[in-house]
Amino acid sequence: MASRTVNEGVVDWAEIRGEALAGLTVSLIPPQVQLPALPHAVTLFVQRSGDETVPLQELAKILETDAGLTIQLLKYVNSSFWAVQKKVANAVQALSLLGCHQSLRFVIATGVEAAIRAHKSKLIKQNAFWSTNLQKAIFAREIALLLKTDAEVAFVGSLLQDYVLPVLTNDLFYDYREFVQSEKPNALTLSEFEQTRFGWDHALVGACLAYDWNLPDELVCCIRYHHSGLQILSDPRLGHSPVAATALSALLPDQLCTSNHGLELLMKLEPKWPAFNLQRLAESVDQQYVQMGLGIHNDFPLLPRCQSLGNDPSPCSVGTVEAAARG
Fold first, then answer.
1. Domain residue spans of the chain
2. CA angle, 209 as apex, 177 and 63 as ends, to 5°?
3. Based on C-alpha coordinates, what's the Rg of the chain?
4. 252 closest CA partner among 182, 305, 177
């Protein structure tokens, strides 16, 4: 999984990941932050799945040592999203249906969610947090399809983009509470606030921890660059990659950024990118959310928020929008 074709170029994910982290490690995180650990079954699955000679039955046995992981896998493949004719009854069948790469990404996403849910947050409501992440992930997958890049990498990368925030906002509660309570005009974005306060942001912390967990380089890059904004569309290496799809999904509202500013920016893409229609995408995202049936209630569907947007969206770079139109 070191590289893959994007449009007509080749992205060397190991090289980009090296540049993104530039020798940084999880040691940059303050000692009072209690970093989560991946479930053992996930760690072992990631390690063993990298060997193409490992039989599917062995990988299934690894998953079956974790009942919660196995249940989530079966629930996912039996959802209406996959429309299977006959119920999938065991891990071997599920892995066979998903295939190696998609199975790996599902196990990573589910394992990371389990690791984070084990940590309470004083500032973030967990169910709403994962609901928003799932919404962003589905949106990123739709954008990836428009960009003609790997939709499943975009889905998982977006699902994990903010995964360390529950831990950080809990262990550094008073710092993050100050950000949430700030009502100043032209206030800093969350990433800007973190850089000013700590010298790092959650994107960098999440990427370092993901690398420490030996997650695939493309997922590390999605996490690292998810706050790049619309300008990433003009990046010669990443502009048509899952990283770009993840960055666009990060513009959707969430608990720590409830305004519609990101949606207004996305709307500005429409005149220059004919394939991009925000309301149509929002409708598809809401439908897929229900079809996936993962038991996470969607308290804030995307379509009503898009329909309520004003007619005078915030300005953004014309050059950036034109770059998207070349997708």
1. 36-118, 124-327
2. 115
3. 19
4. 305
- pLDDT in 10s for each residue of the chain, 327 residues: 344 434 445 789 999 999 999 988 888 888 889 888 999 999 999 989 888 889 999 999 999 999 999 998 998 888 877 777 788 899 999 999 888 888 998 899 999 988 998 888 889 998 889 889 999 999 999 999 999 999 999 999 999 999 999 999 999 999 999 998 886 656 689 999 999 999 999 999 999 999 999 999 999 999 999 999 999 999 999 999 999 999 999 999 998 888 899 999 999 999 999 999 999 999 999 999 888 755 667 778 999 999 988 544 443 443 444 444 444
Q: Report the 10 Å Cβ neighbour count for 277.
A: 16
The answer to whether 230 touches 265, Cβ cutoff 8 Å, is yes
Fold of 124-327: Hypothetical protein af1432 (1.10.3210)
